[in-house]
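Lab meeting notes turned into a lecture example. A postdoc, R.K., suggested we walk through two folding results consecutively so the class can see how the record format repeats. The first protein's sequence and structure tokens come next.
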Amino acid sequence: MRNSPLVTVICLCYNHANFVIEALESVLNQTYANVELLIADDFSTDNSVKVIENWLKQHPEIPLIVNKKNQGNTKTFNKCLKLAKGEYIIDLAADDVLKLDCIANQLKGFKETSHKNVGFIYGNAELISEEGSFINDYFKTDTNRKRIQSQPTGDIYIGLLNGNNNLCSISSLVKREVFETLNGYDENLAYEDYDFWIRAARIYNFDYIDEILIQKRVLPDSMYTLLTKKNNKRTRRFNFSTYLILNKAFILNRTKEEFTAMLKRIHYEMTIAYKTRDFRLLMKYIFLELKVRLKTKK
């Protein structure tokens, strides 16, 4: 790794007028200096664009992409990725806030890792309310803000399949090479991280640094708060995306152990489908489970 590689932060905004300036300032205030900031607004219906444009009067060198219609995170991010010049990439939501030494710590993690072929460095996050009040840490910590349980590192593919390896994607610094190898995010999905982790883990190792790297804002209408809502269109699209991801993983799997691990996640998703009354999705999972079980008997 070069001494001062360029890091690109792609900040995606959708109706985050109340928070976006704090997110942008957190990028510019990093203790690590060699940072490129790209901003994209995904057709916000509030005054996000006006707020960003006013802020950009003091930073005219920073580009802003404004979608003419809502395209979703995956498509918008991939559009920005084509413009990024950095050797490393951060995907930042406009309602989240980077800690001052976030990038410095992430790069240190890449430099000091004991694993070979590392594509991701990630750490812990501090969850905050809409008003910015502390809620808790993403991974449970002790009085020194260090993780209570050790975090799996290296080859974590099986742990991602069975759900034992819980990553904190919002705190990730990713080599640009990973995005290029995987052709960015899958634009057919409602969310990007789980699919991207699985595809990356088939090729790259992961490492964890035990630092609070980012503040994650928990909003009432965030995608993850909709996970178990009944008869909700966004919930169904989110959960169907997980089904598509597991079908892709079925193709990536190589061993009985991997297919066995996949069964645990399928059973969890079947429970979610039942709780949300998505019985069509539940039937799809039943057929997928049968396919996976056949692979475990060979």
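The second example is placed directly after the first for contrast:
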Amino acid sequence: MKIAVLGAGAIGAYVGAALHRAGVEVHLIARGAHLAAMREHGVRVLSPRGDFTAHPHATDDPAEVGEVDYVFLGLKAYSYASSGDLLAPLMGQDTAVIAAQNGIPWWYFHGMTGHPLEGQRIEAVDPGGSVSAVLPMERAIGCVVYCSTEIESPGVIRHLEGTRFSIGEPDRSISPRCVALSEAMIAGGLKCPVEKDVREDIWIKLMGNVAFNPLSALTRATMVEICDHSDSRDLVAQMMAETLTIARAAGCDPQISIDKRIDGARRVGHHKTSMLQDLEAGKRLEIDAIIAAVVEIASLTRVPAPTLRHVYAAIDLLSRTSLVS
């Protein structure tokens, strides 16, 4: 098995190090000081499950790597459309792409045989077909990340919690390529269940992201602060309820209670969401996959979703007026 990690940041480098420890041929594609450190010292993982160091090949040039069996995408979803030049040298006839992204993926309605929206393109995450032109639907393996990591310093990954990477085919099959990837991830010390319908995991995680990410950026509050403020907790619950209604209208029925989902988020504590961190760093906000696509699916399925629409309007305006690097 040969795997390239395109965008070997906090999550990508952690996954790459784990797979390399399992004996997989891994190539990390990164840049800057982080790349230089990984080249010289390998990837050092600091984890409550035990520290370790791995020495996979690291480069900024995918042409050095060549065709691989899998590409693990560690890029932000809004970078997919512009990643064609980086992806091209890695893509063989049967190369699969694991998109470890938050929110609704560009392939969401692909493979939903019999559903009224089967094959529907979601403009928010595939504008003008620009992403599917670079990442054909048939290459996609869904992936939902239940893992928290950060780059403590160049080449050093701090693993905070979670090791689960749920994967699955858009057409709900249990494919050999998913099974093989799962076995490699498990051998590297990660959890990697192959789900018959990974969309359920997408919506369960999205219930938190769609509410806490934009609200934290708009209020500068941590997750526990949002949960402990009665009115903002009610706002989260309204957003989650609308999200569940949209999920069901789109053909998925996540089995989780809203109170349980909020309480789970509260236990994370004084954590700044990725969207708040990006805002404070002057980076582009990842709103397209996290909330814009949900609002678009609401329109496609004729679900009103007024709370989501109002919060989306506010976070969209903030994204347009804040500094972007």
